[in-house]
């Protein structure tokens, strides 16, 4: 054990009692293990089944003499300032040790290796403080949503590559991981119409999408052209493999939905999603999601060898592919790439969008040899028909999920948890102060409500008057006679324009003569 050092020498405690004979000789090699006395870096790294780093914590630390021969442990890796010391190590480097229950309080955490999809996901994020969890601490969740909610948007639309009739590419350029069961026994499952390369799905996952084992996943030991050999039981419920003819399955990464992939360079895949509800008057941001399976990572280094893809978007006005912002893209650690902002001409009048993805760099020795597409995201998305909580009556508010008559009344009257009225609401997160509104309930109704209105009714009344023949007196002007009157109602929609401007679109006019 090292007990001290100078600039070119170390002092050691040799042997158990410190008095064992020393057999170190001049010329021997020595290695110093552990952190320097004045401190060093500690690293906690979590990897997924593709050996990708999904979460990493790097801290500076130093030890004192009293910390020797003890285990320094963090029960919750998301709380950054809490370390526990114990003479007996309670969990360690093996799977069995990691599942030890000797530690009095171990916090189970989940690494979300995908985009946040809802406010409920947001509340699962760690606060970084001991014993403060947004999904169980209402006060902390209230403060968190009020602070961060108005600055966020989760208004997006997901369009899956596997959507029915979306694929419009050439046969055998890109393939789907979706399959239909031809036959199955306890360790081998064969699918209809597949012509795989041998061994390409080794150590990947088979996910059952329909049938009695729906949702179960199995590790793949090997594959030939049409069938898969499975390792043991399912990872969820420890069930033996069983599937009926016609059941749907997907292979590859352990996702709940199928993907498209190609194993050949310079192969173009095309998809067009129709009747999506997209508004051609809005400029959307486009994101693509696939699989990052070729990033070499250490605690301090990252080398991206994922397949390169060329992405193009169809212009419905010029009837040609637009020149992309970048020559090529590669998926990052979040399995995604940001393509850029679409023009209004990239969305058809009927709300369709069409993309092209071409594979490159599959022959890189560090690349897995596969290019992927799972789905695309477009944001922000309009939510037509949102309820304005400043103007909606109780009956309408009571139709929202989780809102009963009492809470609806509190919203319309602005009754807060301390009994005071807080109307009008500046943003939807002001409702967190309303009596009866919890963070969980707020997450359920957030996408149904607004504090502003984009649809208006304009009532116009025109009158033709016949002036009175009498001379008006100082304080007694006789009324004019109305000889003609006309009433018209216009229903208009406010459409955002650049530079904080807007235009009004006429939806309906009603002559009330």
Structure description:
- With 513 residues, the chain is mainly beta.
- It has six domains: 2-98, no CATH class; 121-151, no CATH class; 178-258, Thrombin, subunit H (Beta Barrel), CATH 2.40.10; 262-379, Jelly Rolls (Sandwich), CATH 2.60.120; 387-450, Orthogonal Bundle (DNA polymerase, domain 1), CATH 1.10.150.320; 455-511, no CATH class.
- It is built from six helices and 30 strands.
- The protein has helices at residues 95-98, 119-122, 138-148, 394-397, 405-413, 439-445; strands spanning 2-5, 10-12, 40-47, 53-61, 71-73, 84-86, 157-160, 175-176, 178-184, 188-191, 205-208, 217-223, 227-231, 248-252, 260-262, 268-273, 285-289, 295-297, 302-304, 308-315, 320-321, 336-341, 353-360, 371-373, 375-379, 387-388, 449-450, 455-466, 481-497, 501-511.
- The protein starts with a strand and ends with a strand.
Explain briefly what this protein structure is.
The protein has 513 residues and is mainly beta. The protein is built from six helices and 30 strands. The strands form ten sheets. It has a six-stranded antiparallel barrel with strand order 9-10-13-12-11-14. The chain has a four-stranded antiparallel β-sheet with strand order 7-25-17-22, with no helix packed on it.
Measured between the Cα atoms of the first and last residue, the distance is 99 Å
Helix content: under 10%
Large-scale geometry? globular
What is the alpha-carbon Rg in Å?
Answer: 32 Å
User: Architecture of the largest domain, CATH level 2?
Assistant: Sandwich
What does the largest sheet look like? Answer: 6 strands, antiparallel, barrel
**Structural class by SSE content:** mainly beta
Average pLDDT across residues? Answer: 82
Percentage of residues in DSSP E strands:
25-35%
What's the number of structural domains?
6
Strand order of the largest sheet: 9-10-13-12-11-14
